[in-house]
Write a structure and sequence with these properties.
Elements lengths: L2 E3 L10 H5 L5 E3 L4 E3 L19 E3 L6 H11 L15 H4 L5 H5 L9
Antiparallel strand pairs: 1-4, 2-3
Organism: Paracoccus rhizosphaerae
Keywords: 3Fe-4S, 4Fe-4S, Electron transport, Iron, Iron-sulfur, Metal-binding, Repeat, Transport
Cofactor: [3Fe-4S] cluster; [4Fe-4S] cluster
Amino acid sequence: MTYVVTDNCIMCKYTDCVEVCPVDCFYEGENTLVIHPDECIDCGVCEPECPADAIRPDTEPDMEKWVEFNRKYSEMWPVITRKKDPLPTAAEMDGQDGKLDKYFSEAPGEGD
């Protein structure tokens, strides 16, 4: 099992999760985060830290696409290990449907 970031993170990018990760497996894009599925040790401490409920275990239905999404971008983006301010759009975008198709950016974030 691994944990993955889903589209609930897009345009919010809360980083509470990265502070508690014991193996630093989060990677930062311009407007979202991802978890490297091969680096995640399945401890689950990140899941309850996410205010947007964007982190899910891969054992839930239809998570295969998110495992591959997280794998792809974690190999392209810089690692993030410190908490940063969420995006200014976080409050209004939290819980909005269809964010992957509407807002996702492949651009990398700044990382640490």
